[in-house]
UniProtKB/TrEMBL annotation:
Keyword annotations: Signal
Signal in keyword set: yes
Pfam families: GSDH (PF07995)
Glucose/Sorbosone dehydrogenase domain residues: 53-382
Coiled coil: none
InterPro entries tied to this protein: 6-blade_b-propeller_TolB-like, Glc/Sorbosone_DH, Quinoprot_gluc/sorb_DH_b-prop
Entry keyword Membrane: no
Name of this chain's protein: PQQ-dependent sugar dehydrogenase
TM helices/strands, residue ranges: none
Annotated signal sequence range: 1-27
């Protein structure tokens, strides 16, 4: 076990320094002032290598067993048991792999103990050179130590409509705390204007019943030509979607050049893309900023330069008191964990923990440890526990 020095990064992107690594288990040692457990800058953790995966995209722990399930973008679903056994799940939907597309998110049903239902998002091919995100629901059956299968998979939702290109699928999944509603993030597919058009579900967050049908009470269900699934719109590319400890839904979006944003998701709200943004286009063309009095909901927290989020959780465990009820974001360009302190409807970045690698996903284990997945081929998944 070897020390890693961790210090608080300011919003101005002061990076965190780590000592050279010499073993598969490493301890983080803070250099910022403050007492561990009180100050996020002083959080001290060890990280343990839990295996290598190929382009991991999302992770989730199976309720009741502690088995970790990992989606690999090219189309493989794997699991890792607590004893280290790694296996593969068969009968996964065929994915259209390329660019940002492939196998995406995984979520276990709120009634998993009785239903054994699991939800997977993925990208499927359409007519010609088109594609779009979809979500399937299946029953997970694990009869062998090193293999499971998906029984009776059924696509319950699709992006409307399929378009060309291989970007901005989003396809994050979140259940409401009461288990009654299924929320799915639907990216704008790099087409921009559909995010302001209620007749389709691109650039939106949709609210469904667990069977995939539109939930009653959605805000635009009674409007002519509007998609009745839509809960909110004007979104770009949502890579984080989660409920906080207060039961509020938040999304985390990639901005264009600058302007990554954390939004409190409200019923019927318009978040402005592509009409407004705190960033600019990649060709440096300007975009109007969010401004007081405009008809759009501004982000609660935003980043320029960007962090390029890979995923997000709200930490609820007891192992890391300074992280409790706050957001942990896996950063791609920022190459580490970003901690955002939550205070009701306010949110502020307070710390960064550098890994020196792009991070794609973050998950909380039943024991309160935090697991993070690196991005790309031969990516390591790390287990974080309090350091000594």
């Amino acid at each position: 076990m070897e020390p890693i020095s961790v210090r608080l990064a300011s919003i101005a992107l002061v990076s965190l320094a780590f000592a050279p690594l010499a073993s598969c288990q490493q301890a983080a040692t803070p250099t910022a002032s403050g007492q561990a457990g009180d100050n996020p800058a002083s959080v001290d953790f060890a990280r343990e290598d839990m295996g290598t995966f190929d382009e991991p995209w999302a992770m989730a722990f199976e309720p009741g067993t502690g088995t970790l399930f990992v989606t690999e973008k090219a189309g493989t679903l794997k699991f890792r048991k607590a004893d280290g056994t790694v296996g593969i799940v068969s009968n996964v939907p065929e994915v259209n792999y390329g660019g940002q597309g492939g196998l995406g998110d995984i979520a276990f049903a709120p009634d998993y103990a009785s239903s054994h239902a699991v939800y997977l998002s993925f990208v499927e091919a359409g007519p010609g050179d088109t594609r779009g995100a979809a979500v399937t629901r299946a029953t997970l059956q694990c009869d062998q130590p090193d293999s499971c299968t998906l029984r009776d998979p059924r696509v319950i939702w699709r992006q409307d409509e399929k378009v060309t290109g291989s970007g901005h699928f989003s396809h994050r999944i979140a259940f409401s705390p009461d288990g009654d509603f299924l929320f799915i993030a639907s990216g704008d597919r790099q087409k921009m204007q559909p995010a302001q058009d209620l007749s389709n579900n691109l650039g939106t967050i949709v609210r469904l019943l667990p069977d995939g049908s539109p939930a009653p009470g959605n805000p635009f269900a009674a409007e002519a030509n509007a998609n009745e699934e839509i809960w909110s719109y004007g979104h770009r590319n949502i890579l984080g979607l989660a409920f906080d400890a207060r039961g509020q839904l938040w999304d985390l979006e990639h901005g264009p050049q600058g302007g990554d944003e954390l939004n409190l998701v409200e019923r019927g709200a318009n978040y402005g893309w592509p009409n407004v943004s705190n960033g600019i286009h990649y060709d440096n063309a300007p975009i109007p900023d969010h401004a007081p009095g405009d008809p759009y909901v501004a982000p609660v927290e935003w980043w320029d330069p960007v962090i390029a989020p890979g995923g997000m959780i709200f930490y609820s465990g007891a192992l890391f008191p300074a992280w409790q009820n706050n957001a942990l974001i896996a950063g791609l360009v920022s190459q580490g964990l970003v901690l955002v302190k939550m205070d009701g409807t306010a949110a502020t970045e307070t710390a960064r923990y550098d890994f020196g690698e792009r991070l794609r996903a973050v998950a909380e284990a039943p024991d309160g440890s935090v697991w993070v997945a690196e991005d790309g081929p031969e990516a390591t998944i790390w287990r974080l526990t309090p350091g000594s």
